[in-house]
Each structure stands twice: as C-alpha cells, then as structure tokens.
Amino acid sequence: MTFDWLWGGALAARRDVLGFYRDCERQGGLVRTHIWRLPIYVVTAPELIEEVLVKKQRCFIKSGALRSTGRAFGRGLLTSDKELWRRQRRTIQPAFHAQRLARYRTLMNAAALRLCEAIGAGGVRNIHHDMNELCFEALAQSLFGEDMSEARPLVAAAAEALHQFHHLHAQWVGAVGGLAFAAVRAVSTAMGRPDFVADPTLLPTPYGRRFRDATAALDRYVATLVARRRAAPAGDDFLSMLLAARDDAGAPMSERQVRDEVVTMFLAGHETAASSLTWALYLLAAHPVAAQRLAVALDADEGSGRATAGAGAGAREIDRVMREALRLYPPAYRISRTAVEACDLGGHPVKPGVEIMIPQWAVHRSARFYAEPDAFRPERWTPAFTAALPKFAYFPFGGGPRTCIGNTFAEIEGSVALGHICRRYELRVPPRAQVAPYLGVTLLPRGNTLALELRRRDSRPGAGWDDLQAVDGRAKAGP
Known about the structure:
479 residues; 12 strands
C-alpha cells in the first residue's frame, strides 16, 4: 500500500531537493504536487515564471518559509510586500545609483588589494571565508562608510544560525512535522488568511535557541549603531538615508523598520555575493583551461587602465565566467511565493494558499535551454546566445519588480574580486577535496568551507599548473 496521497513530494524533496526540482523540470513547465497535502506548484517554464514574477505578481507574496524567519529579516526589503515594499524600495534605491556605484568600485578595489596582500604567496585557503570577509568589508565601507569590524562576527554568527535554522526547518517540514505545517496553512487559508505564518523560531530546539541568541546579539549592535548615527549623522550613506526618510505624512521610519533594513542589508547584502564568488573561483580552479583563458585576457588589460575600470577583454571574460557560475550555482537556488489571490497559470487554477516554487537550480541546468547543461562553459555566453535565451531561462537575481536591488553592486564586486585574484594567482582544487552545496537560505558550500590552493602566477606567458592540458574544461559541475 502506498501513502503517496499523504506525503506527496515531501520525502523526495527531503532526500534531495535539488534533484527533486530537476525531476519536476524534466516533467514539464508546471508540475502540481503537494507536501503533506499542502498544494505545491513547481514552475520551470520561462513564460509561466514571468506570469508569477511580473504579470500576476499582485496575486503572490513572499513565501511562508522566508517570512517565518522574520526574527532575522523582520519586514525588511527582502520579506516585505505590497505598499511597504514599494515605499522601502523607493527609499533605498538611491544608494545604488550609478554615481554611487562608481565610488563603490574604488572601495572594492582597495578591499580586494588588502585581501591579496593578506594571501601573500598563497597556500591552501578557505576561499569561502575569504570571500565573506571581502564582501562584508566592501559592504561596510560602501554602504555604511565605516569599517564595522565589531559587527563582522555578529553578522557571521547570525547568518550561520539563520542558514542552519532554515536547513533544519526544511528537513522538519519534509518529515512528519510537515503535517503540522500543512494543517496550520489549511486552517489559516480557510479562515481567509493564506498569508499567516507561525514563528517556528520560538520552538524549544537547540537550533531555535541558537538562532534567537544570535539575532538578539546582532540587534543590540544595530541599536547602538543607529543611536550613534542619530547623535552624529555621518552623511549620505545607506543608514543616513533610512534615518532621513519620511513617509507621505512626514513621519520618520520606525526604529523597528530601520533595524529590519539594516539587518537585511547585513545578511543579504554580502552573503549572496560571497557565495557567487566562492563558486566562481571553485569552477575556475576545477577548470584550469578556462582559468588560463581568463588570466591571458586580464594580462592584456594590464597597463591600459582598463583593468580597474571594469573594461577591456578581461572584464568581458569575467562577465562570461560569472554568468556561467551564477547559472550553475545560483546563490538564490529557488524563488518561492504564496498565492493570496486566485489566478490562473498555464491553464491551471491557482487558489489562495498554494505555494509556488521557481527553482533557478533546475531552470539554469535545463537541457531545453543549455547544451551540456551541467558543464562549465563560459564561452557559451556570446551576444547571440544571450539574445536568443528566453527571458526567464536565466534569472540569478530574480525578476520583475522584485529583482535584487543590489544586482549591479554584486556584478561590480564580482568583476573586481575575480580580476584581482585571477590576475595574481593560479587556483587548484586540493586532491581528495569533497565539495558539495548546502541549502541554507542561499546555496553555500557545506560547512561554510571550500578549500582552494592558490599560488602566485608565474610571469612567463602561458605558465600554469603541470596538469593544465590534462583537464577537460567542460567537466561537469554537478553537486
């Protein structure tokens, strides 16, 4: 006797959620299933993704899974919806205007140079730790105008607790705990509240307590920071914008909302960029032919002034590498939405309470859109290929009105960091290294560790690792 009618896709998703998403993608553009009777639609067709994120976005809000970690993000830009989101987006958008981004590039260059000085001659490094340190420094200097070294361990502890909580809670929902989750959703939807979420961080579990303690410590730091800035305004940085903002009635932003936006920027503003860079460097280390091609392009830019300005052959090659890395290892490996209004997707009715899963991981690795979809092939990103690709066959930063506000910031950061590191170092994955993704809120290396061996590049043209030519530059980049 089978009980699939009860658990649906829960066990398969709990066992291997990335594999589950790819199986759904192979079945078609929209797969209807359920997790313990909670209706789930897995959407992978580009035209239907556009329906959810753009054309019918008013029918959906951020998923219950993301909103349930409100103790961390609160009602910041990542999790807020409707009018609050629109107001906060308008307030924060000037921090990412072109003029400011040019200034941020200078600060990023300085931070990347300091990292290279710290690496020195090279050696085996936890490159994920290095990228987190680099991206947090760039964030602090660019958006807050100060070093913020005191905040770094607090943000790291809160981020680690958040990722662990998200991972373990997803495992709990995939197991029989999902019965309780589905029951609460069914009751709240029947009562006209499909948006209702319980706060699972209140559960008396070790990871729940760790999450509460870590966010409380970060909150105390943010409260002190905000009080200090109110007493002595610093200028026109991100926090100053929040403190100066006024609504239509002339009222300032609440203390809680300021806190939510600052913490959201701390957690989401550097971790996704660090993850992107970590996976890009790993892929280059695993594919030395591609790494050498990038190094040659960067050498061609040296002395021309184009290297630090983000122009020239090196910048174009970095762009292709980053596009391919974001395709294979998108930090936001899925987008989730909760339906709050009835609508139609591809001829299928969507009722309030339905959860919509849009897995970039599966769409980006679809054979429908990409030849050799699991292979690392930066050279595929020609202008012609990019122009022919359906709009939502590639969307590492989301899409529609909720496109990541910091996408250009992250692109500049990636270009700067890869340029400095790959210009100076050759990369290799150490022998017997075990690399696997970990599904927290974002796609991370397991254990927050990804070891790479770095060594100073030989000045001789074409020099590289002894086994350079023995490696297939199209090797698969699977989990």
